[in-house]
Amino acid sequence: MPAFLSHSSPGWPALCLAITLTAVSSSAFAADIIVITDSSHPVKPMGGERIIELDQPARIEAELSADLPADPNHASAFARQRLSTGRSDLQRRIVQAYQGVADAWSLGIAKIPAVVVDRRYVVYGEPDVARAITRIHAHQTVDRSTRP
Known about the structure:
By secondary structure, this protein is an alpha+beta fold. Helix content is about 55%, strand content about 10%.
């Protein structure tokens, strides 16, 4: 092993820090970050993360049922018209919204906002995604340094 990569080399910690800082950039983890929240708990995204809003299905349903006539027959016809007019976009939005709720449930999310990295690490209550990721990486660094 070259001297600059040896564990006893004085440059080793600096090299590890540089590699770690490169790894924690938002682009390195963009595909592995999921943020679970709702419209009452806004978050500050970094960009590239998947954001799941748990109340999105209810908001889409409210959008569909907004200003419907009181008569059930007319309301039904109006709703069918709305569904057929924006069919592909609306169907995509509904599927994504319910898939997000199912994904959050499968991750066992207990509180929002939640920032999940690699479907393995989670930080609850931090609305700033970058700060949450920094906390996760700090924990990972400490965890790695305590391993034999």
